[in-house]
Amino acid sequence: MQSTWYPINMSRFKIRRRSRREAHLGDLVFSYLLRLLSLGLALLLLMIGFFLFRGAFASISRFGWDFITGSVWDPVQEIFGSAPVLYGTLVSSLIAVIIAAPLSVGIALFLNELAPPLISRSIGFLIEMLAAIPSVVYGLWGIFVLAPSLRTRVEPALVKYLGWIPLFSGPFYGVGMLAAGLILSIMIIPTIFSLSREIFRTIPMAQREAALALGATRWEMMKISVLRSSKSGIGGAIILGLGRALGETMAVTMVIGNRAEISASLLAPAQTMASVIANEYAEASNDIHLSSLIEIGFLLFVVTFIINGFARIFILRESKS
Amino acid sequence: MNTKAILEVKDLHAWFGNTEAVKGVSLSAAYNAVTAIIGPSGCGKSTFIRCLNRLHEELPGAYATGHVLIENIDIYDKKVDPVSIRRKVGMVFQKPNPFPSLSIFDNVVAGLKLAGVKRQSTLKEIAEQSLLSAALWSEVKDKLHAPGTSLSGGQQQRLCIARALAVEPTVLLMDEPTSALDPISTAKIEELMTELRKKVTIVIVTHNMQQAARISDQTAFFLSGELIEFGETSQVFTAPQKEQTERYITGRFG
Amino acid sequence: MNHTVLTEHMTKKYQQRKITNRVMIGLLASASCIALIPLLSIFIYVLAQGLPGLNLNFFTQLPQPIGETGGGMANSIMGTLTLILTASLFGIVWGVGTGLFLSEYPPGRLSNVVRFSADLLSSIPSIIIGLFVYTLIVIPMRRFSLLAGAVALGIIMIPTLARSTEELLRRVPVHVREAGLALGLPRWKVILRIVLLGNSRAISTGIILAIARVSGETAPLLFTSFNNQYWQRGIDQPTSSLPVQIYTYAISPYEDWHQQAWTGALILVSLVFMMNMMTRYLLSPRRSSK
């Protein structure tokens, strides 16, 4: 139940302040204090953008658009083209979304429409636990469990049977784009799952009964009453998942192999925007290298900003209709 | 009136977890007649009607026992698939519930499409017929591709009736179909029902006794999950056999 | 097509539909099981690999230099606790204060802007926050420091706390506030004493969740609080923390350090899960029905 409580409006505030000065001095101070804090939060966002831009300025003015289009990232030669890094970010996140989106929506459907309450609650709880595991622990598991099993079991089979596709060709190391995509997919499952389940819960029972009464099977009911009417909400959930994948740092840094090269093969090592920052901050001895890393950060900031704005519009449209 | 029974209910019990909502009801509805179910709220009349297409059991923790024979087939037989039953038994709900993501046309043919009918000409033909039967055709024929939810409440309810009719059911269940509508829309739907009964057997739940008296051939009176009285509408309203029925229809309780 | 042909067609199709239905239900159920595999695997490995290294030394000793066995993460555990405490000092006040503004004052342009900013801020990757604090504090101070790390974690706490506080306080019925005002209390006292303290349990779950979220954060600490193999010496000095230490050890080539990383992960995961369980307990219906 939502309640609103706004008995005092601000114009009355001033009149009453004159009549009962002491009590209202406290109110005035308190309300301005809270305003200041709230305004500060909005300013914080602007400050982040500004400071990153200022830090990136040296790199922006030196490389211009070449920074985005250049395909060589070589700190030693002081050549900074971030195309391989952007490519790595995009591809690893896409792998994650392609795997996680159908899984998460499927789980949300299963738990909301099919499973008995006890199972629904316990599996839901476990899936949400996935979100609580720190990124660095995912990375640890990735290095010592996921990557070795990819190297010894999955990747040899991929190369053997699907090696004719460029995506699965060439030498393999366990760590690489595929490992990063897989680990990201696990990490964004709870994001997409929780939002989808919330959306499914808002669909009235009458919609489901309308389909069942027409002779729809369970699956057809889910398709016609549940999935169809939450399309844009699910879209928003997936975009939010993508946003999370784009900026995820530690787990990716630990399993992607950290090589800033564009390769057709998913088995090859790669680099993402977040992982290049995490990896090279320590060795960034000269200013232009540091500035380039900050520019990567600035770009990542802008991209997540746009993506999350988009997702929110999608979800808002859902809740209005 | 053809008095051959098309719908026979024998000793039907319906449960929500440990609560018994319908306590051993038996009645039979005549072919192409309108059967009204009346009774105070909470008497189990909605639960009863939802057992007639096995929709009741779709709620968590709900189940039903007993026999419901439609055209001599027991729909509670273990071998019978509830999904196939629901194509024979259409249902219209309390609040109009067209699919919000579908157009008017797609709403009407939703049941057919589910059943695997793909030919556009067939779909168009049946959609027109069903909308005509639901007395909605003239109002929507120029905007078949507008969303179903763009219609007024009364039109939406007639759209739901058209949707139910499109799969050519033998029985049409109506669960207080006019309770969410204004008097004019209600009148339209009542008028429609006197037409519909020529093609389909109707079982309607209503809390409005005048409505039951106006439109039905048979009336069943429910109280606390039990069937108190069942008979010809004129008899139930003019010469009730049971004291409880009399007290209810004269407005003394409920 | 006449009616009987149509019915025949439908009956034939129906077998197909039933199969599709079964297959899809099977797929949905297996999706739920597949997603649980990594969770189980992570749990099992963290326990199996972490437990052998769990002993008193781990909590009391400093890391040993490369080549010497033994040692612990005492300084990292202390470092993480100090970081969280310092971050909470301003993160909680800022976050809860903003939440109060959003829930207790009339909606207007500012509250919409603030709500939107909070949502965006919470979705910015944490490494960006780290980079921001790096340019804000580390570069001017010319030094990695506990302060910088705490500021980064604090900033991450603010939007989460603001929104959770707002959500929780909106559930408080109006009459509770009116009762306070009717007693002649000024508005700010009503907000602080009745609204905030009266719902301290709900507010504290929000705080615990925010702390749980930042206690596992690694990326924003890499270039703010950095790392340190010794005890923390001051707020303007770099400090070790559990997540960064796990990362450092995990990517090292030494067997012994890997063992320590797993044990560190066990501690970290237990800490985060304990906090999550605590909020569930505090929010469970049995407890909150007063």
In the CATH hierarchy, the architecture of chain B is: 3-Layer(aba) Sandwich
**Into how many domains do the coordinates of chain B divide?**
1
Shape of chain C: flat
**How much β-strand is present in the residues of chain B?**
25-35%
Task: Summarize the amount of helix of chain C as a percent range.
Answer: over 70%
Number of strands of chain B: 10
The strand count of chain C comes to: 0
What's the oligomerization state?
A: heterotrimer
Kindly report the spatial arrangement of strands forming the biggest sheet of chain B. 6-7-8-3-9-10
**Structural class, from helix and strand content of chain B?**
alpha/beta
CA-CA gap between termini of chain B: 32 Å
The CATH topology label of the largest domain in chain C is MetI-like fold
Features of the shown structure:
heterotrimer; A: 321 residues; mainly alpha; MetI-like fold; 13 helices; 2 strands; 75% helix; globular; C: 290 residues; 2 domains; flat
What does it look like?
The complex is a heterotrimer of chains A (321), B (254) and C (290). Chain A has helices spanning 10-19, 21-63, 66-69, 83-114, 117-132, 135-162, 177-201, 205-213, 218-227, 231-247, 250-255, 273-280, 287-320, and strands at 73-74, 79-80. Chain A has 2 domains: 10-63; 66-320, MetI-like fold (Orthogonal Bundle). Chain A contains 13 helices and 2 strands; from the N terminus they run αααββαααααααααα. Chain A is mainly alpha-helical and 321 residues long. With 254 residues, chain B is of the alpha/beta class. Chain B has one domain: Rossmann fold (3-Layer(aba) Sandwich), CATH 3.40.50. Helices cover 77% and strands 0% of the residues of chain C. With 290 residues, chain C is mostly helical. The chains are: A mainly alpha (321), B alpha/beta (254), C mainly alpha (290). Chains A and C meet through helix 2, helix 4, helix 5, helix 6 and helix 7 of A and helix 1, helix 3, helix 4, helix 5 and helix 6 of C.
List the helices and strands and how they pair.
The complex is a heterotrimer of chains A (321), B (254) and C (290).
Chain A: H1 10-19, H2 21-63, H3 66-69, E1 73-74, E2 79-80, H4 83-114, H5 117-132, H6 135-162, H7 177-201, H8 205-213, H9 218-227, H10 231-247, H11 250-255, H12 273-280, H13 287-320
Antiparallel strand pairs in A: 1-2
Chain B: E1 5-16, E2 19-30, E3 34-38, H1 45-51, E4 62-70, E5 73-74, H2 82-88, E6 89-92, H3 104-108, H4 110-114, H5 120-133, H6 137-140, H7 153-166, E7 171-175, H8 183-196, E8 201-205, H9 209-215, E9 218-223, E10 226-232, H10 233-238, H11 243-249
Parallel strand pairs in B: 3-8, 3-9, 6-7, 7-8
Antiparallel strand pairs in B: 1-2, 1-4, 4-5, 9-10
Chain C: H1 3-50, H2 56-60, H3 74-104, H4 109-123, H5 126-141, H6 146-170, H7 174-182, H8 187-198, H9 200-215, H10 219-222, H11 242-250, H12 255-283, H13 285-288
